[in-house]
Each structure stands twice: as C-alpha cells, then as structure tokens.
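Exercise 7. Given the components listed, write out the predicted structure of the assembled complex. Treat all entries as one system.
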Amino acid sequence: MNPSPETGAKCEVLFTVNGEAKKVLAHPMERLLDVLRNELELTGTKEGCGEGECGSCSVLLDGMLVNSCLVPVAQASGASIVTIEGISAHALMNPLQEAFLECGGAQCGICTPGMILAAVHLLEKKPEPALADIREGLAGNLCRCTGYMQIFEAVARAARRRVRK
Amino acid sequence: MDRIAQVVGISPVEIRRRNFLKPGQTTTTQQVIREEINLNHLLDRALELSGYAAKKTRFAEENRDGMRKKGIGIAAFLHGAGFTGSGERYLNSLVGVEAGADGNVRVLVSSAEFGQGTNTVLCQIAAEALGLPYESVAIAQPDTTVVPNSGPTVASRTAMIVGKLVQSAAKGIKETLTKTGVLRDDYTREQFCAACREYIAAHGALKSYARYEAPGDVYWDDEKYRGEAYAAFAWAVYVAEVTVDLTTYAVTVDDFVALQEVGKVLHPVLAEGQITGGVAQAIGFALYEKVVWQNGRMINNQMTNYIMPTSVDLPPIRVFFEELGNVHGAHGAKGIGELPMDGPAPAIVNAVEDAIGVRFHSIPLLPEDLFEALRPASVEQEAPSSTRGAA
Amino acid sequence: MRSDPAEYKLVSPGNLQAALSLLAGEPAQWLPIAGGTDLMVLYSAGKLPNRKLINIWNIPELGQIEVFPDRVRIGAACTYTALREHDIVSREFPLLAMAASWTGGIANQNRGTLGGNIANASPAADSLPALLVYDAELTLISVRGERRVDYRSFHTGYKQTALAADELIRDISLPRRFSGYISHARKVGTRNAQAISKVCLAALGQIANGAIRDVRLALGSVAPIPLRLNETEHALTGKRIEPSLIDTARKCAAKEIRPIGDIRSTARYRAAVAGNLVAEFLEKFAAAEANA
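Answer.
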C-alpha cells in the first residue's frame, strides 16, 4: 500500500500497558480497543457496541476510566494503560474478584472486564461508596444478564473488605 | 385482571384470590394441577414483603397533591418448565456421565453454558448423586463427537429435565460399580477412585447413560392441543411500586418484589441471578425498549438509541423463593429461566393505573404514551412534527 | 460499515501555535479532535467525512481552568470530570457541573470536553443551556489572533456556528456573579444515564422585593440550536410569581420553542414537557422566595 498525502501512514506508538513498555506500529486513528486486542493480543477488553455506550471496552488510561473504542491509539502515546489482564497487579483486584465470584456478579462475562475496571476506578475515588455512588459509577456499563443487583453487592462487599484491611 | 376487578367492583387482590388455580383444578388446556401449590399463600407473602396494604393507604393520601403520583401493582402467573406438550418426548434427550480411572467424573450433555450456571448446577447434581465432592466433577465441552444430544438449552428445561437425567446417569455409575462388586454401598472418595480404577482395568470405559422417559401421567393431545402442557410449573406473584412523574410523564419503578415457588433452589446465588436478570430485562420491556420500525427496518438498532436500563434506572429487585419440591426435577427443581419475564410488565402497568387511574394496553409504556393519554389542558405546539435521524 | 484507519491522518502538533498553523494552512481540511466522544462514534460508524484530524487533547493551553476574581476561564479541552471536580465551578456554576454529570457515564465524562460539546453544536447537548444562562463568553483563536464572542450569538443554525474554518475555541469564560441566584436544571432523557436529552432546562432567577428581578431560561432539544427564552424572560421580569404568571410563562415558552419529532420523542411531548419544566422552575423559585 502506497501512502499518499491523504492517507495516514502507520506510526510508532509507545505506551505502557499493565506495567510493561509496549511499542506498536499502527495507524494513528486505529482504535485503542483494536490495538489492545489485535496487536497486543489482550483480548480481555471487549467490544460491545463500538459507540461508547456499553462500557465493555473500558480500560484505565493514566488512571482514568475511558471507553477504549473511542480513543484513537495516537492519543494514548506515552500513556499508562491498565486492562483487565493487568488488574491482578492492582491492590483492589483481589477483593473485587472474590466478591464478584461470591455474589454472582458475572454471568456471561462480556460486561465483566469493563465492570471490574469501572469498579476499580470508583473505589479509588470513593473507597466507601454508598449504593447511589456504586450505581452512578457503573452507569456507563450495561449488563443484560445480572440485572445489576449482584454486581452492586459485589462492589459493596469488596469496598468493605478493603476498608477493613 | 385488574380491569375485570374494576368493572365488577372488587380489589385487584380479591379478584385474584377468587380465581386462583387450586390443586385438582384444570388449566386452560384442561391439565389437572397436581402440585400442592397455594397461590393465596404466595399472594399473602408477596403483599407482606412489598408492604402493599400500607402503601396503598399512603399513596392514596399522598397522591392528592404534587406532581409525583405513586402506585403499586400485582401480577400473578405461572410458567411451564420443559418443552410444551409432546416436545420433550420428541426431543428424546440422552445424557451421559463418565468416570475416569482417577475417579474424576465428567458430565456429558449438549447444554450450553452462557453464564446462567448450567455447568455448576449439573456438576452439583452429579456430585450429590455420587456422594463426591463438587470439585471431582467436571463437565465436558459440548462437542457432539463426545456428548450425546440432551436437547437445546431453552424452554427452562436444563435444571429440571436435563438435571434429572444427569442425576439418573450419575446413579447409574454407582450402580455399575456396586453391582460388579468393586464398590460397597457406603463408600469414601478414595474407595470410589479405587473402584473406578479396578472397573476400568477389567471392563474398559465406565459410562452411564439416561434417556428421557415421559412420565406416565403426562399426556398431550397434539391435534386438539389439550392435556398436560408441562410436567411442572413455577408459580409467582410479583409486586411493582412505581412513581409517575407528571412533569415528564416518566414512570420509575421504585421497588420490586419477585416471589416464586420453584420446587427446589439448586444454587441460591445462581437462581437469584436468573430472577434478577429476567426482572431487569422485563422492566426494560415494560418501560424502555421500544423497537422503532421504518419501512420494515429497525432504525433504533444501536446501543445509543435502543434504550435498555442502566444501573441507575432499576429499583432494588428483591427476590424470594419457596420450595415445594417436584417429582420431575432433580431434588425437586423446576425451571426458572423464562419465568421472570412474565410478571414485571403487567405488574408495572397495573401500578401505573393505580397511580394515575389510566389503563394502558401496550408496552413499552413510554412517557410519550402517558402524555398522549393524559393530554393536559396545556398549550399545544403547532410545530411541524417531521421525523429526522438522531441529532 | 467501519471506517478504515488507513484512510485517515491524525497529527499531534502538541502545541497551540502549530495546531493553528495547520488549520490556517489548509482551511476546512483539518478537524480538531479532543476527547473524541462525538467524532469517534461517527468514525466507527463510517460517517466521518473528514480524513485529516488534529489531536488537540494534549495541548496544555486548552486544558486549564483559571480562576480570576471576576470570572472563571475554562479551557476548551477541559473534560466534564474536570468541571465536576473543580471546587469553584461546582459551587458557583452548579448548572454546568450538573450538566457535566449528566453527559454520558464516567468513562465519557473523563474524555468529553466542554469545547467539544460547543463545537459539535448539537441542540441536545447538555452543557449548552447552562452556558447560555451564565452569560458565557468564548475566546476563539487563530493565526490571525483571538476574538471574544458572546456565547448567545455563537450558534447560528442547526450544527452551524460562528467558528471560522481556521479557528479553535480556546476557552469559555463565565462571569462570577450568579452566587445569589436560585438555580435549577433538569434533563429529560430516555433513561437516567447515558441518554441524549429529549428536553433540557437550565434556569437562574433572582427576586427582589417580591418581584422577579432577573430570570434566565435556556432549553436544549427544542430548537435547531440551544435556546434562550428571551420573550418568556421578558414576560416574567418585574412580575410577582403567581399561578397566572406561571401559566403565562408556559404559553410564552410554547411559542418560542420549535421542537421536532425524531427517533427519541415527539414534538408535542417536547413542547408540553418544556412548559412543565419552566413551570416547575417557577414553583421552586417561588417556594425559595417564600422561605427566604
């Protein structure tokens, strides 16, 4: 393929993913979601809608929860990204993982990586969230299977355990 | 039901009490109810759990002023488990259980696990039947070169119909081992493992199969569409509490009680998950999820414009179970997968009528529908109402 | 049909001057992209005609919130989260902070920007009515220099603005004189979160000696542009709030707005609810005055 002046050539993008330095060769307008899944083979992050509505593609970008389907990879240059695969290194994950399993927070699992990322982000901002905070924190993550109640329970339980430690 | 009650001049509660099916009575397909179900008790309990009586009184008072009207509504219903009529007979499901030389057990079914907990529940049943720890039972990937045809994962049949067959097949493994003398009736896990090893060395593979047999008293006439439509029913009473906001004409569900009799709860967390998820979806069905058609195409086919409920749209969904057992399912379990879809919409529409005195006949019930029905004497806009794509 | 990334160019000049030079050099060729919460949706749906984009997410001059004694200056690339978390913005401009909390979920608030909301110019945008009532002033910048534009004249038609082809919005200035006002905002969407608005109201009011001294009403999703209800405000100013006045306000508002039917709602519903929201504000306004 010959890149013409109107066509975007691939470029090198450097960033950190789950604590590891990564270098990818990608078109700048490739979605971060696709780069994570395809180039980096981190398939934990899911595509649910491709329009920033469902939250299945949520990752942490420099500590901020974002929908990776809406981030051109060029804008992630120099950033520190955390995906569901990297959450285990996060102190919060063990209580959240345990709680999701105990409470039935995951059924089909497609929303789960995004939900967990959103919950991590929430608990970092609000370590002792009220139910209303949990609902708001997860409002950008759609789930069809669980009806959300057991997810709320899981997040609340994880928060209590974390605070008790 | 509420409409009939209104015309006749009795309460929504009373109309149901007078018309509830009792054991020995027949359904619309002339099926005799043999389960010892007491719907009056179920209704009593649902009303108590939802605080129905006190709320009715309070709402009547509070609705006198203000722009937010509250209402509470009931739905009582049943849902059959398994394929309708002769369906299970035609499916003729076959289930296998296999034990390895190491004493580990594999369940062989064609059921698909998609998060509802099939794998967990079927392994629980096999483990229980064999007196083994849950961890020693696994489930084979439903590869059709390996597993028999236990039917599709539909019709609220997996826990009840397939589960019962898993139980039988698992018992078959035990029988094979005890009959060939390698295992006593009362055994430890170590003894079970040793017995498997011994059996397999002598006889080869250790597998047991169980095939569906229609229960003697389940008969369905395919021509007349009469008879035993389902071997078993789950029974439920749901109560929805709503607020109708007369500023925006929006309906919000504030509290939801879902009470059902399901035979046996095989796994409390999974069972609750099924009901909660189903109720959430049905609330979407009732109030949000309109499909907009234009020239035969669905034009709101994106997550941005097909509106399903988010975590801030749903009430606390409070789930309760009763267990009366049943002869047809493993440990008396009946199917529950589809049940929760039936109740929420009627309960909500009834609650809306309770709140504002207007009856609606279709769902989803959108604020625009309430507005058109209420059509207050406010100024009507003479704007051209063109239809345009999303702004 | 998904867009092919190979057909697009995205450059990251990293500083304002370089970005402006690009815009000036090839007018109307380059589309600025900040958080991407509008543009990337179009892109993913194959509906973004612009093939050349300038990344302005990382331009430091656009990302600050500066507080002066008389005004707050919000950089165009400030996110909704930044607005919500800013002490002065949330205290003195609650309608804007509220609107920010209603715009998508947390993930979208972390990326969506106020400048993007303005430039995208959807009449359904949540923040715009608040900017209208807060007397926002935009600073537009290009290689030719900068100019100030009263926000009230920025939107000229459906998705059309006063922004020239070589200009960027640099910041949004809000005068710090609304602390003594009653404020009220309400968004009516298809659901409680992640919803495009069907009708949206931002309102401010001040009463002196029992009569309305100043009232500001702005609505979204009821016209091709976010709308200040000038005539309704005029009809209300100087009057005492009574049921008959509220009725007058409803009728006036109904005449000023031009709602349509679309995939989300109907013109009649929008018109009625717009009137209801105005009435709701006036009731609240009157109650606040009664309790004062």
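Discussion: Confidence is low (pLDDT under 50) at residues 1-6 of chain A. Helices of chain A lie at 32-39, 93-103, 112-125, 131-137, 149-164.
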